[in-house]
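Protein 1 of 2
SEQ + STRUCT:
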Amino acid sequence: MRHIVFDDQSRSFPVALLIKNSAFNGDEIRRVYLSRLEAAGVSKADVIGFTLEYDHKGKASVSYMKDYLANLLPALKSLGCTTLYCADAAYFKVLTKVNKAEPHLGYVLPCALEGFEEMQVILGVNHKSLIYNPANEAKLEMSVQTLLDHASGTYVPLGEDIIHFADYPKTSEQIKHWLDRLQSEPKLTMDIEAASLNFIEAGVATITFCWDEHNGIAFPVDYVALEVPDEQGNHGVMVPNSPVRKMLREFFESYQGEMIWHNSPYDTKVLIFNLWMKNTLDNSGLLKGLHTLYKRTHDTKIIAYLATNSTAGNKLSLKDLAHEFAGNWAQEDIKNILRIPLPQLLQYNLVDGLSTFYVFKKFYPLMQADNQELLYHTLMMPSQKVITQIELTGMPMYRDKVALARQELEGILNQHLSVFQGKSIIKELEKVLTDRAWEKDFEDRKAKAKNPDKILPKDRDHFPLVPFNPNSNNQLQVLLYELMELPVLDLTDSKQPATGADTLEKLIHHTDNQDYQDILDSLVGYGKAVKVLSSFIPAFEKAPVKEDGHTYLHGSFNLGGTVSGRLSSSNPNMQNIPSGSEHSKLIKKCFGAPKGWLFGGADFNALEARIDALTSKDPNKLAVYLDGIDSHSFNAFTYWPEKMPDVNEYLTEDLLEEQHYRVEFSDGSVEYLPESKLNDYT
């Protein structure tokens, strides 16, 4: 335990800065934290710094942290510390007994450890994190400002005063009155609460409309409140409300202002299905709703993505983006809206709408300043419209082919398992695992016993066998690196010996033992089959059957879900379905066009490389397309020209070292000339 004082004369310290031991540097603490506090009027004599200890591996379990705090907190109490600025999320969770730390950024929480409840804890930011994520600068400023507000007595919890006006109309007449009034608003943020992430099951529980970041309305659509909660704890049920749905449809069709959503594909998808589509295959209704909801539409998720995207990544959820404005307005993410009383759900929905307006006002100017407005309007938002249509349409599948795929994959798994069962080293592994489990059981029971000396080990011969589990990384580490004594070729992120498929394929070439090779081959095959069987087949089986009797798989595509700008996908990951593996044909057979339709596909050939060649005008890159050179061979030649003496004579090292230009002569010949010789020719 180390500490630092900033005034040698002081003996009482109301404020304690708690920082991880690896970041505990006096000069840096003065520069980052103390300078900010002193600038705001906090005396350095009132501040002391203490380390938060981690072990030599940089780790600390909950029990480790509790033991350390058992020594630290009494010391802090004796020094008069009443406010703890904890720049460590793990220790903050132990001090306050919250499940997640970051939602509490900007708040002051009481210490939850017995005997120290009078201490107040503020989540801080480790200054070292700014090195790899400059975006943490704003979080650090917020945390220090919270400390200053608390010290000056001006602290107000985030989000406490953001609602200036709100109305929650209940009757059809009241809702109609408000929808008519909203027609004159030039901009409205909109957000729905629904009963499911699946648009077919979601319904429209409630909806909000806000005309700025402090004023708006919210009302129920399909949510019907119960007088008393039912046996499942539900406060309401979902009943389609045709009159209100009709009013909403008419409102959207006539509204001429700008509609602002956060993550527009979800809300618009649910609304299109429930307000315009007669059934899951109503394509004309789909297109009518799609064109209506995307006529003058903004998406604050995309705006924030363009304004904040960096190699460090960013968080684009509404709660993250609006945290500084609305705070932690839902203590836990809503899993089932029917468990929430209607008044509470309506207010939550309203705050979503207000927060969306706040995010729009904050990030739209930043996007403009970064010269990305044209990209936003011409590529990103049109893409959101296409994504919404894709997600509503789905991918048609053959249910019988899905069943056959499962049957074949399970057969493959059984074949690989039979290989394991016949090998003596697997039996040896199970014996080692069982011995270790027996020893651990004995040690655990002794550790928990009041009289450990009286605890005896269980009968080893009747201790349950630990069977081999090919999905267990820990078991594979024992098998590969202890029993087989294979070399450690790769490490995981946590510096443990790797056991993934790529590593297993390498290890096959590091043993001459045929049994070991058979096991490694089967582990690779087993892993590939398990991935498909666990990741995709269940999603295929859950895909809904539509009115034409065909099954359709609906996924979610996330624009802005990657740092690179590419799409990501989830529930299921439609971009990770096997295409080039040994199981790809099996999976592809599950998809097929319904009666009366054809599947079509199109793809660019090396699109990025072509764009690169055209924009850079690099003659080497252009030569690939102008002269039909194989790009892979050309790339190889640039690295090892001495190994390819028979390559075309104009592909010399000079071409690669100096800027050259392709010159066509009147006789039809072509030469690549350096810029310095271009003036010799007309």
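Protein 2 of 2
SEQ + STRUCT:
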Amino acid sequence: MTIATTGSSRTDSEDSLGIEDLRRKYRRERDRRAPSGSTRSYTSVAGEFGYYAKDPYTARTERETRTDAVEALVIGAGFGGLLTAARLKEAGVDSVRVMDEGGDVGGTWYWNRYPGIRCDIESYVYMPLLEEVGYLPRWRYAPGEEIRQHAIAIAEHYRLYGDALFHTRATGLAWDETLEKWLVSTDRGDRFHATFVVTSSGTLTQPKLPGIPGIETFRGHTFHSSRWDYSYTGGSADGGLTGLADKRVAVVGTGATGLQLIPHVGRDAEHLFVFQRTPSTVDIRDNRPTDQEWAASLQPGWQRERMENFLEVLAGEPVEESLVQDGWTATVNLQRQILSGAVDDTISPEEREVRDELDDARTMNRIRSRVDEVVTDPATAAALKPWYRYMCKRPGFSDEYLQTFNRPNATLVDTADHGGITRMTETSVFVGDEEFEVDCVIFATGFEVGISGVLSGTLPVTGRGGQTLLEAWGQGIQTLHGFATHGFPNLFHLSALQNANSVNFAHILQEQAEHIAAVIGEGRRRGARYLEPTLEAQQAWVQEVAATASDTRAFQAECTPGYYNGEGTRSIGGASYSPGPVVFHRLLREWRATRMREILVEPSASRQPKAVSAGVSA
């Protein structure tokens, strides 16, 4: 059943629209989702909404404050932080402290435990350090709990728990000019020194809520999908949500998270209302258990080979064989609209755009046709069809989501003409004048993009001479290779900014971790006072990123509002190194071999490196 706010169902003419007709259709659908030029606003889970971000999984325990010193502090215990800590250990840095706001390691896989959660990248290339830890995933697309347990296994394998600080948020980093170390402050009262600091706090970490008028007045039960309340729903990530058997449940959001959890809520709730502003593309997932015969045939080095091959295919580089053949590798050309990588330069840009737009139209027509094949009600099928180009939203995959809307207890509420939910009251959710009484609202509304740590200002960083990092970046981000900034010695960042990007960001994080560990290891070997990019090298890199930047603004301006285009207000293009991750990783290897001097500050004859202080006063 659908609440028909779309005004029409599928027509035969829409199945054979030409490119110009498609463009007009896409623009109409984009404009429907931003009435009068407005875009949906979101509310941070802070202040009166701070309880949405609390940890429901691990009890906070009291501990003594730290006033000691470590050689390396890694902020963030997701895969980026774990990989960095592991590679630092391998490089001979024994004193490595990992710190995270969560109650354990895992990052997004610690927080996200909603029913149905799985990785949408093949687990054999997504889950890092499989050979090092001695593990092979049970499924091609692994469930969240298996991934979380693998994160724990990495921490145990590299002995990272001994000096880990959980439920701890860094509140300040200040360069100590005398000791030439970082003074670290936290929300637990810690004040300790670290010779090196690496931030890996992620770009999708802070949950967000839609800015719905009256959201605070609702008296039913609410929670965010990244803090799933199993005490209310019952069951587990495998389903069995028996607590919802007599509940009318609203799910707000139909992105990647919604695609996974909605089938479980639909199976177990008395009634499910799915509030959709923009439908996702829903392609075939085809998950399956790991082939044991294939697993037995694997030779040492197989994972790196497979990861590199997947990255090369997605980056548009030539390969003899594609080892991972799935929905991602089938849409490589279309991904160039958002993700950096090689392009076909044997034809003109105009010819390439025509070819890619035709490929895009064929792909989207196939995905829309699948909706008709699966969903029995024509009006519901019409509302579920995505009318935009393929990479306007992160592509989705599911073999259960569309089928949910054939259930008699599932209602799709299309909010497009209202730009989202209109308001909430003590008992109901409104779309326009239509009222939906519900007992529970689950917000599958994602995260604040890029809002974490040093970028958000929630982690003030003060470098040499009292300059803050945000001041240094006041006229634009200034880094060498995205990792380090002049004026902020021994400080490294993991992110896609002026670095590489890919749909398999775990691979990008692995390369970043290896680079940082190699730089720190070489600095220690040479006895460098500290590691800091020269101003000349930094300026040259910023100029190179700008000169090679791809401009995605025109493409994203035609897209429906979403997190890729800042709800229709900005473009994410230009942040990463446009020639692509394969070229970038090759560049880093060459730089480490020949140009490491651009970041090493050698000790003078009169000033040898200082030993790490045994303690620091508060």
